[in-house]
Amino acid sequence: MSSIKVLIIEDDFEALTMYALMLERWGYQVIRAQNGAEGIQQALQNPPDLILLDVMMPGMDGYAVCTQLRQDRRFQTVPILFLTAVANVDARVKALTIGGDDFMVKSAISSEELQARIKMALAREKRIRHSAAVEAKGVTVGLLSLRGGSGVSTLAMNLAFHSARYSQQPTTLIDLSLPIGNIGAWAGVSGTRHIIELASRPPTEISSAVIKQFSLQHIGDFSFISAPSQITDVHTVDPRSLRLIPSMLRDEGAFVVLDLGRGELPLYWGIPTVCDWLVIVATEDSLSQHLAGVALEGLPKMLGNNSSLLLLYNHRDAGAMRQTLTGLPRKPDVEIPFSPNLASLPAPSPVIDLWEAVRFRLGQRPDWYV
């Protein structure tokens, strides 16, 4: 069966069943919804590759569903094909005007034509995605906190997960939370294929092929290079090679996430200088907020203003009231409730705010950057 998912939003149960069986026979994965509100909920929980949408439904009609989905950045290019009993020209014009990709009348279309129109819409969307990917430029974002236990590794994982899910760029997460990282342990991997082994090679030996040899695939559809799973001698690291690795991935168009942990060794090796964005993580802990202020004040001097700094407030207790942020030098740019479980984040996830912030290109920064 194909990995392509089609969401059918149709209030007529018999019609919904018929189209679902037809699409499954053609090899598609089918998601069903019997009204507009349920359709939007299904789309948010399990993003489809294409949507078949009825017009006349109780409560929220197809026009309202299409309008709401098109306002969400995740569904701006997903093909929406209206398949309805409404046959007048005004209905067709309205559907296409609000963002529909096609308009088909149930009584006038054969199964062969429906299949052809679905294939055509998917092929068109694939061309759009390919064009966007070709034009996309890579970006490198590092996350750190001078205070341990601030949730940096969890945020780095979540950011990589959401980049892989919502963008067309390849995403790579590099664990520099040394001396022992978290990403590899969470993924259940160990051995010598880690970032210290890779960065101990001279710069002349660093290539895309070599980096790929040390990259593992996460179930979240992003690649990652783990840190050592045990105490390892880091004196063999060539800082030039370590800086070259994320730079090379970025130049190839990747979204690169660096888990810098508390930052001791990454700062010593000058890793933040290759980041387009540095995210300083703070929690409700007073020392964490104080150290975030220290980082915001000191890092620009160290970096020569080559990078942009974002301040992120990580709620470690998602159910608690927001704490007074008296220890921070300014209002956080992004606030995210702590969650070790990717699936438990609400839809749309607040990590989207961080992802959107760091996707700004250098020279096109928002007016709140440091």
**Gyration radius, rounded:** 24 Å
* Total of DSSP H or I helical runs spanning 4+ residues: 13
Number of domains: 2
Query: Which percent band covers the strand fraction?
Result: 15-25%
CATH topology of the largest domain: Rossmann fold
**Net shape:** elongated
Q: State the major sheet.
A: 8 strands, mixed
Secondary structure: number of strands: 13
CATH architecture of the largest domain: 3-Layer(aba) Sandwich
Low-confidence parts lasting 5 or more residues at pLDDT below 50? 361-370
Instruction: Give the CATH class of the largest domain.
Output: Alpha Beta
How are the strands of the biggest sheet laid out side by side? 8-9-7-10-6-11-12-13
Classified in CATH, the superfamily of the largest domain is P-loop containing nucleotide triphosphate hydrolases
The average pLDDT is 82
N- to C-terminal distance: 49 Å
Topology pattern, helix = H, strand = E: EHEHEHEHEHEHEHHHEEHEHEHEEH
The percent range for helix content is 25-40%
Category from helices, strands and their pairing: alpha/beta
Folded structure, characterized:
It is a single chain. By secondary structure, the chain is an alpha/beta fold. It folds into two domains: 5-133, Rossmann fold (3-Layer(aba) Sandwich); 137-358, 3-Layer(aba) Sandwich (Rossmann fold), CATH 3.40.50.300. 38% of the residues lie in helices and 17% in strands. The protein has an eight-stranded mixed beta sheet, with helices on both faces. Helix 1 links the parallel strand 1 and strand 2. Helix 2 runs parallel beside helix 3 and helix 6 (152-166) packs across helix 13. The protein is elongated and about 70 Å long. Mean pLDDT is 82; it is low at 361-370.
